[in-house]
Amino acid sequence: MKPAKILVAQGGGPTAVINQSLVGVVLEARRQARVEAVYGAWHGMRGILNEDFVDLGQETSHNLELVAGTPSSALGSTRDKPDAAYCRQIFQVLQAHGISHFFNIGGNDSSDSVRIVSEEAVAANYPLRCIHIPKTIDNDLVENDHTPGFPSAARFVAQAFAGANLDNAALPGVYLGVVMGRHAGFLTAAAALGKKFPDDGPHLIYLPERVFELERFLADVKLMYERHGRCVIAVSEGIHDAAGEPILAQLAPQLERDAHGNVQLSGTGALADLLCEQIKSRLKIKRVRGDTFGYLQRSFIGCVSDVDQREAREVGEKAVQFAFHGHRDGSVAIKRVGNYSVDYELLPLAAVAGKTRVMEDAFIAASGTDVTDAFRLYLRPLLGSGMPDAFRLRPNPVAKILHPAGV
Amino acid sequence: MKPAKILVAQGGGPTAVINQSLVGVVLEARRQARVEAVYGAWHGMRGILNEDFVDLGQETSHNLELVAGTPSSALGSTRDKPDAAYCRQIFQVLQAHGISHFFNIGGNDSSDSVRIVSEEAVAANYPLRCIHIPKTIDNDLVENDHTPGFPSAARFVAQAFAGANLDNAALPGVYLGVVMGRHAGFLTAAAALGKKFPDDGPHLIYLPERVFELERFLADVKLMYERHGRCVIAVSEGIHDAAGEPILAQLAPQLERDAHGNVQLSGTGALADLLCEQIKSRLKIKRVRGDTFGYLQRSFIGCVSDVDQREAREVGEKAVQFAFHGHRDGSVAIKRVGNYSVDYELLPLAAVAGKTRVMEDAFIAASGTDVTDAFRLYLRPLLGSGMPDAFRLRPNPVAKILHPAGV
Q1: A117: distance to nearest CA of chain B, Å?
Q2: Which chain B residues touch A389 with a CB distance below 8 Å?
Q3: Are residues B30 and B143 in the same domain?
C-alpha cells in the first residue's frame, strides 16, 4: 500500500466549529494504516506557499479535542485566491514534501481554490487527492442542506434578537440589528427564531434576496411602531437597491475590497447608523438604537450548536473516508435525511466551487420582510439543544382607583 | 400586626439578572404573614404615576422562576427621573392603594429616585418603607463590592474578546471593540479576562478613568501591531479628552440626551468607525475592523454568570428582610467576604444615591492601557462557573525543504 502524507488547511472567515472539522480530518487520518504524516498549513494556501507546516502527528489527541472545542481557525486562515501561477508554486512545495492528500476547509471561495489546485494537479500530472470540506456562516454553498458554522452563528443571531426584543420591550423604541451575509440572507433570517410570542420582535427582516427600498422600509417601520409601540428590525449587511448596488456602498465613499473583489461590508457600523438616522429624522421617533453584530456573530466563544459541532466533526472525518475509499476529488456535502438527521456525499468540485446559494423563495414570506414556517422548520433542528427561552409575567391587572377606566 | 402592601418596580437599563431580584422580592414578600398584596409597577416610576400595576400575588411560583431566568426587565423600565412634583403625584397613587413598602431595582439614577421618594414621604408624613435594590452593568454604585448585572455583562465582554482574539489571530489585522460604560471602565476592563496566552489580545484597553489622547493611542497601536503582527483593542464608549469632553461628542454634531442630561453614547457605531479610520489612514494598516458591542452586551440571552444570578436573587430577598426586620429606608449593598463569598448590608440611601464609582487606581496598570492582577482577582469569581476556554495547537514545526532557514 502506497504511503500517504496528508495536508490540511483552513480558509476564509473563521467559525465556531471549523476546528471540529480540522480535528475530524486529523484523527481520522491518524487512524489510517497508510498515513505516515499529517501536516497542517499555517494560514491556509499562503502557508503552503511559504512551506509553513505543523506536524499534527506530534499533537496529543487530548489537545486536539480541546482545540476542536475552540472557535476560530486554529491553523490560521487566509483570503488569498490562488491563480495558476500560485498553484504551480504550491505544487513545488507539495511535491517536495511528498504530500498525497490535500484537504481544505472553507466556503465557496475556498472550494474554488481547491478546484483550481485539483485541475492544476491533473494538468501537471501530479498525483494529488483534493477534498474540499464545507464551512461558512453564510450558508451559501449550493448542493448542501446547510453548511457547518452556520448553525452556531444562526444560534448567536437568534439569541441576540431574543434578548434585544426583551430589552426593547422594557425600554420601547426602534432597535435595528445588522447581520452578516453578503448575498445570502440565511443568517439574518435566523433572527426570526428569536421570536416567541406573537408581538415579539423581530417585527421586520430585510434580506439581500429582496430589493431594498428606503421609502418602503420607512413605511414598514412606521406601521410596526404604531402597531406595537416599538419595533425590532433585522437587516442584512448585503441589502441592495434594484440595480444590485449595496445600500452601504451608496453611503461610504471609499470601500475596501478583498482579493476576490468583494466590497468590505463588515467591521463598520455605518449601515446601522445610516438607517437609524433615517428613522429618527423622517419618522420623528426619538429612541432609535442600531447595533452591528460584526465579528461577534462568528467569533463569540460560548455560543455554539451541539448539532453543528457534531456535523462539523463528521464532515472532516468523512472527507478522509471519501479520500481513502473513493477514487476522485470532490467537495463533501451535507444532505438532510428525516427530521432530523444527515448523511454526507462527495460532490464534484465544479458542482460547488465558486457558486453562491441564496435563500429559496419558499423560505421568504410574501411580504418580503419575514420568513415562512418552512424556514422555521428548516432552521430549528440546526440550532441544537439547550436554546435559552424567554418568559413573561402574566397580566393580572390591579384595578385603578385614581384613574378608573375611561377617566 | 399591621397589614402590608408591597410595590416593586424596575428602572434604568435592563440586565441579564434583574428579574432574579424582582422574583427575590416577590417570593420573599409572599412568604411574610403580614403581606396582603404584592404589586408590580409596569415601566417603573411611570407605571406608578399611571397607576399601572400587576398583581404579583396571582402569579404562579413556577412562572416566577421562569421569568427570573429571563433577561431584561419583566416589568418594563423607564428613564424618568422624578422631581418633587412627580413624587407628590406618586404619593397620591401609593396612598390610594395603601402601599406600605416600595422596592425599586436600579442603578444610581434609580437609587436617587428612591431617595427623593423616601424624603418626600417623610416630608408628607406618609408611612412608606423605601428600599433600593442595586442593579447596573456599569458596576458604578459606590459602597458595593460590585452590582448585580455587571458580572453577566462582564462575562459577555470577556467571552466576546476571547473569541475576537482568536478571530484576529486567524486573520491578522487590528480589531477594536467598543464597550458600554459612561464614567466607569469596569465593563471595558473585563475584556482582559478574555486573555489566556501572553500574546493574546486585548493588547490595549482604554478606560474612561484615564485621559484619551489620539496621538498616544496611535503610537500604542503601532507598537503592539509591530510586536504581535496584529492588535486587539478594547475601548470604553466613555473615553474623553483632558477637558472631560467625550471623544464621541467631538465627532457627532447633534447628540441625544436623556432626562438625566446624559449624552447618548450607545446605539451608534460612530466611535469605533472614527478610531478605525484614524488607524487606517495614519498607520497605513489595511485590515482594521471595529465592532460596537451595543445592546448585545446587556441583553444577549444565554450568557449569564451563575454567581450573578444567585446574588441578584439574594439582593431582592434581603431587601424584603431588611424592610420587615429593620427600621429604616436604605439601599441594599453587596460586601465581599472571603474569596469568594458575599454578605449584604442596608446602607442609608444618601450614601449611594446619585453617586458614581469609578475604577480604583489599584485596578489600572501604570501604562493606563491594561488592568492589574488585583483587578483580575477581583473579577474572576464574579464570572461564575463554566467559562468557555480557548486552546491552541502546539508548534511542532515541519522542517522546510524548499525554503530552509536563512534562505
Answers
A1: 19
A2: 66, 70
A3: yes
Question: What are the helix (H) ranges across B294-396?
Answer: 296-299, 306-325, 349-352, 373-379
With CA atoms as reference, the chain B residue closest to A14 would be B167
Chain A interface includes B405 (CB < 8 A): no
Whole-number pLDDT of residue A266? 67
How far apart CA A372 and CA A365 sit, in angstroms, is 5
Q: Looking at residue A249, which CATH number applies to its domain? A: 3.40.50.460
Least confident of A253-257, A332-336, B369-373, B394-398: A253-257
- Contact of A154 with A187, CB cutoff 8 Å: yes
- Residue carrying the nine cell digits 416610576: B45
Residue B257 reports pLDDT greater than 80: no
Clarify whether residues A156 and A91 are in a common domain.
no
pLDDT of residue B120: 86
Quick one: CA dihedral B116, B117, B118, B122, positive or negative? positive
Is residue B254 predicted with pLDDT exceeding 60?
no
Is residue A219 domain-shared with residue A189, that is, in the same domain? yes
The three-state (H, E, C) secondary structure of B68-118, written as one string: HCCCCCCCCCCCCCCCHHHHHHHHHHHHHCCCCEEEEEECHHHHHHHHHHH
The residue ranges of chain A whose pLDDT is under 50 are 407
- What mean pLDDT comes out for the span B82-86? 83
Q: Is the same domain home to B78 and B36? A: yes
Q: Which of A333, A352, A371 is the last residue of a domain?
A: A352
Q: What is the mean pLDDT of residues B212-229?
A: 97
Q: Are residues A58 and A157 in the same domain?
A: no
Cell numbers found for residue B300: 444577549
Domain span at residue B99? 4-148+304-352
